[in-house]
Amino acid sequence: MAVAVQAAQVRHRITSVRTAFWLGWQMDSNWTDPFLFAVYSIIKPLSGALILLFIYRVAAGPAIGSAFFSNMYVGNAFFALVGQMLLGMSWVIVEDREFFRMIRYVYASSSPYHLYLLGRGLSKLAISAVSVLILMGFGRTVLGLPVSLHSVNWPMLSSTVLLGVLCAAGLGYAIASLQFFMARHGGAASEAVAGVLYLLCGVLYPVSTLPPWAQRVSRLIPLTYWLEALRRSVLGSETAAAFTGAYAGRDLSLMALLTLGSVASLAIGLLVFKAGQAAATRRGIIDTAQDY
Amino acid sequence: MSMLRANLMAIWGRAYVRIVGVNREPSWILFDVIFPMLGVASYAYIYKAMNASREFMGFAILGGAMTAYWMNVIWSMASQFYWEKQNGNLELFFVAPTSRMAILLGMAFGGMVTSTTRAVAVILFGMLVFGVRFTFSSFPLAVLAFILTVVALYGLGMMLSSVFLMYGRDAWHMANLMQEPVYLISGLYFPVKALGFWAALAGSIIPLTLGLDAIRQLSFSTAPTGFLPVKWEIAGLSCLTVLLFFGASRSLAYMEKLAKREGRLTLKWQ
């Protein structure tokens, strides 16, 4: 009997996430025809990648090899997953509360609110995953990135991506908890946090470029190890070594460290979110819109 | 009350709400000033990692500072009518005995408080952390280029806002699309000349392109690159300013008429 109840609860939770995912997808994509949506989804990330290309072209000195650019390009392409997950999980609170005025209905539904946020974050993640594929294809075919289907360490890549999603979900929950207490301008919070992670985690340059204190902070963030693992799995350890300073250990210990960091990030993020949600409920501000 | 006085009051009234609103909740300082300031540093660090000359770091910092205005134009001006429509304020703006442009100017002035704070913070950060030094060849011209750029940008913002009278999320996504692609064609983080002459010329339709290039040439006298001579760029910016404000006035009138005819002016959630 107890097992049946638990199974029903799990099914209900999966349905909650799936429904939120579908809702997010519909909201993001139903405003236009699929072709225009595809163009829209491609142009933005491609422009970001081309900015890096031009920066590299104007600044690269003779000592900089193409391995530097490959690491920068891969880091930037995959980091979109983190940025979109954070945005998907936190912006939804601002959007539902201030704009669609439907947060109270979602909140009052039978779906646990944290699972609703997770589903909305995953829908953004799915869209950005397409962008990552396009960016990698562009990098391979147009920019001559040393990546091929055979050279990629697929088991390591898939487990790294999964762990990154857990870690980003934890951060997303933490930012989402703040949104309950912030006015509409809080919508920029996820982008702002993503910007800081972009700076500290060695997305575009080796962590060793940062000042020593920032390097110490960087080593406390699981996403730093996530980027290192991604580069090793996509570009190989030799090319990834061009970005020194993040972690010099072996792949297995790197993955263990990443697993620990990601699980801890998710657990802490959820705790922070639950605390924020409880405080906002107590203060009666869950659906307080601030029109200015 | 004269029309001028009414419009001036509308400008102040709309700006006041924004200034007071934002200062009632100081969290914007963290998320709109400090964190974005750190985000801009990423681009400066790329140049540092590649041992590029210090001017390039200055270029990135200056570009990052100007981003504040562009973001303000897109999200707090162009798309503001979208928010107002959803909130039910747009009807009030239309029955008010003032010009729509006065209301938009009020939004612009109100938004400039946060944008300028952010821009100044980014520049100070660049000077303190990256040792960026500005060696102005002509400070007055640099100020003129900056003012023309900002004014032209807000003209463009007004023009874009007219689109939101008619459309909903289509326009919202268009605004979203105007971030990275615009950063690219405006050469926000690298000298726009690197794009090639024709691409840079096409990008000059956005005032940020010419404005930033002129400010960079005037602020870094040893700057290695410039797209066009500064005087040409300032002349181009002046033309853009006039054209964009004229275009904004015509576009607002036209889109308002069109939106009324099609019944979309106050249509929510489209």
Q: What report would you give on this structure?
A:
The complex is a heterodimer of chains A (292) and B (270). With 292 residues, chain A is mainly α. Chain A has eleven helices and no strands. In chain A, helix 3 (66-99) packs parallel to helix 6 (154-179) and helix 9 crosses helix 11 (251-283). With 270 residues, chain B is an all-alpha fold. Helix content of chain B is 77%, strand content 0%. Chain B is built from twelve helices and no strands. Chain B starts with a helix and ends in a 9-residue tail after the last helix. The mean pLDDT of chain B is 86.
Compute the CA-based radius of gyration of chain A: 20 Å
Average of pLDDT of chain A: 88
Mean pLDDT over the residues of chain B: 86
State which percent range the strand residues of chain A make up. under 5%
Count of alpha and pi helical runs of chain B? 12
The end-to-end span of chain A amounts to 53 Å
Q: What share of the residues of chain B does DSSP label as strand, in percent?
A: under 5%
Q: Low-confidence spans of chain B: pLDDT under 50, at least 5 residues?
A: none
Low-pLDDT parts of chain A are none
Radius of gyration of chain B: 19 Å
Main beta-sheet strand count, sense and barrel state of chain A? none
Number of strands of chain A: 0
Computed structural class of chain B:
mainly alpha
Described by the principal axes of the CA atoms, the overall outline of chain A is globular
Which percent range fits the helix content of chain A? over 70%
Number of strands of chain B: 0
Count of DSSP H/I helices of chain A: 11
- Sum up the overall morphology of chain B in one term: globular
Oligomerization category of the chains in this entry: heterodimer
Largest interface: A-B, 53 and 55 residues
